[in-house]
Amino acid sequence: FEFDNMSRICTTNARTLGRGLCIITGASKGLGRALAHEAAHLLEPSSVLLLVARSGALLKKLREELQSSIGQQQLEIHCITADLSTKEGVNTTLKVARKQKVLNETDHVLLINNAASLGAISAFESFTDVESVNSYLSLNVSSALALTAGILQMFPARPGLRRSVVNISSTFAQQVSPSWVLYCTGKAARKMMFNVLAEERPDVKVLNYSPGPLDTEMQEEIERVTGIAYHLLPCQESAVKLMKLLLDNEFASGVHLDFFDV
Ligand SMILES: NC(=O)c1ccc[n+]([C@@H]2O[C@H](COP(=O)([O-])OP(=O)(O)OC[C@H]3O[C@@H](n4cnc5c(N)ncnc54)[C@H](OP(=O)(O)O)[C@@H]3O)[C@@H](O)[C@H]2O)c1
């Protein structure tokens, strides 16, 4: 029994995400921040981690935390201060990723499309302003498509290269909720977008992951607007589950998995 236990621990410790280029959008807080902590420990030496969000100061603080817990030599971490609702924000992110391509021979490109916003929770009839609807979709749908397309183009398929794309989804990708038209539409569109990618590119592993109700600023906003308080999970718990799915790598590409079902 003891031997079995020991060997399981050894196997678990040996598992990594490889020598990777890992890009996490929305890494400054909430789930993205927790994902950065988990991924940093699972990437092999000489890997590169790109942290993207608008709050540069929070990203730098996160980088310092990661570097002191992992060691500066182990992992190269770049903070990318960018507004992903804009073309410039997506292009800046791609530009930094392109520099890593030149410098680094990577065996796993992992893109986690986590950044998102809640948007207004309001009656359907209130959404008459095309520009504000476009602005919502720009961050929550368009930027995820353009960024993923850019990264896949930059790192084409080659023997020995694993390419993984994660879409941080929600139960609202599949469940109708009155007054949540922006959020539901955005998450449903993203799910379909990544399903198309999975069909089109069998060599890319695509995962739609619904992380469960999390203790984050987004939930604070939900409670403030709706008055509904959910039982919330610590982000780390959900981040660990997602990392396990990526380590096991047994999911069917394009599948939509919920925290409570895995
Ligand atoms: N919280 C939940 O209960 C829950 C449940 C299901 C699914 N989700 C999904 O999980 C993901 C993370 O949610 P969360 O609760 O951690 O949200 P959060 O606390 O609001 O964090 C959102 C992250 O996205 C970044 N972001 C927002 N707008 C951005 C922009 N224009 N450009 C670049 N980055 C931007 C934020 O950073 P800056 O503000 O610094 O830009 C932040 O790092 C989202 O996809 C969300 O839909 C959350």
Automatic annotation (TrEMBL):
Q: Does the keyword Nucleotide-binding apply?
A: no
Protein name, UniProt field: Sepiapterin reductase
An annotated GO cellular component: cytoplasm
Swiss-Prot/TrEMBL keywords: Cytoplasm, NADP, Oxidoreductase
Primary localization class, coarse: cytoplasm
Signal peptide extent: none
Question: What EC number(s) has UniProt assigned to this enzyme?
Answer: 1.1.1.153
Subunit info? Answer: Homodimer.
Which family does the entry's similarity section mention? Belongs to the sepiapterin reductase family.
Any one GO molecular function term: sepiapterin reductase (NADP+) activity
Q: Which Gene3D superfamilies does the UniProt record give?
A: NAD(P)-binding Rossmann-like Domain (3.40.50.720)
State the superkingdom: Eukaryota
